[in-house]
Design brief:
The protein is an alpha+beta fold. The protein has helices at 11-33, 36-45, 53-62, 72-77, 159-169, 202-219, 226-229, 231-248, 254-265, 269-274, 276-290, 294-300; strands at residues 5-6, 69-70, 80-82, 89-92, 95-98, 110-112, 118-122, 125-130, 134-136, 173-177, 185-188, 193-197, 291-292. The protein folds into two domains: 5-46 and 147-300, no CATH class; 53-136, no CATH class. 47% of the residues lie in helices and 16% in strands. β11 and β12 form a beta hairpin. The longest helix is centred in the first third of the chain and has 23 residues, at 11-33. The chain is elongated.
């Protein structure tokens, strides 16, 4: 029998609360957007390379939690240092060179530029690192990338257990694993597996479970590559679901959620508000699945 959280609110009351909670996300992101911390974050994030879909898929396959990647020297130029021992993410670059002899390269590896000059094309393997693999070069300075505060404390309501039972009943496998720093969990849509980091505090694990349950419910049927193309929207949706469901249970995840949503949505409050239908649809399903009332328990008994 699935283990559930006892609540005394009715489904109708939860729906009203959920709408208000979702609206509050955009309001809090708007406040963050006006802060010095957000301006510093934008300064840090400016100038990042826009990667092709193929490279996005390569990045995702090697480090599912990656948000902003750059080369070793590029990070140094932005005031950050890649930590010793961090494993590089391998992607393909793009390079060309003038051809002085037609025999230098086959036709399928050449192109003619706007000046009529034939050029050889190749795709070198490059090493890049995610921001989570770096630290500020000046450890005494405030870190503009630290928009999210990892949650601490207990999971007294048993949220992780209730969400795990809900996902398991829906055909997902839920596991705890040691994950790289900065990665709280992930959802593998292909194998229907949800992984929650083993080294985080119970409150953070509970919030992450709600986030991954939202991914499982909303994004499990996406076509290959679609998630990467619209990742900002999908991460905004999943974290918003986690925030609202947690709020319905009396838990405040704003210290983590608001910075996370702001980062993935580029603090676009119109985007956040546009997710309301999807977010609330997932909230109602997940909240109804993991909660029960004393009356329901008496009926079962």
């Amino acid at each position: 029998m699935a283990r559930k959280i006892i609540t005394r609110t009715t489904p109708e009351q939860r729906r009203e609360q959920a709408t208000a909670l979702h609206a509050s996300i955009a309001e809090q992101v708007e406040t963050l957007r006006d802060s010095d911390q957000w301006r510093a974050f934008l300064d840090l994030s400016s100038g990042f390379h826009a990667y092709s879909l193929n490279n996005l898929l390569l990045i995702w396959s090697q480090r599912p939690d990656a948000t902003r990647v750059a080369g070793f020297r590029q990070w140094q130029a932005r005031g950050r240092q890649v930590r010793k021992g961090e494993k590089a993410i391998r992607i393909f670059g793009y390079a060309t060179a003038k051809i002085t002899d037609d025999a230098d390269a086959p036709d399928d590896l050449t192109h003619t530029d706007e000046n009529g000059q034939r050029r050889r094309v190749w795709f070198p393997v490059l090493s890049v690192f995610d921001i989570a693999q770096t630290d500020p070069s000046n450890p005494d300075a405030a870190d503009p990338a630290d928009l999210t505060k990892t949650l601490t404390g207990a999971d007294d309501l048993g949220v992780l257990t209730a969400v795990s039972d809900y996902l398991t009943a829906d055909g997902w496998r839920v596991e705890r694993e040691a994950l790289p720093p900065g990665l709280g969990g992930f959802t593998d849509f292909k194998t229907r597996r949800v992984v929650i980091a083993a080294g985080v505090e119970p409150a953070q694990a509970a919030k992450t479970a709600l986030h991954e349950a939202a991914h499982a419910f909303l994004h499990g049927d996406l076509e290959p590559g679609e998630y990467q193309q619209h990742r900002g929207t999908y991460e905004t949706e999943a974290e918003s679901v986690a925030y609202v469901v947690a709020g319905l249970l009396g838990l405040d995840t704003s210290a983590y959620t608001i910075g996370y949503v702001a980062g993935w949505s580029d603090a676009d409050t119109d985007l956040i508000r546009s997710t309301a239908a999807n977010v609330l649809r997932a909230v109602h399903v997940i909240a109804d699945a993991i909660t029960t009332t004393p009356a329901d328990l008496d009926a079962v008994a």
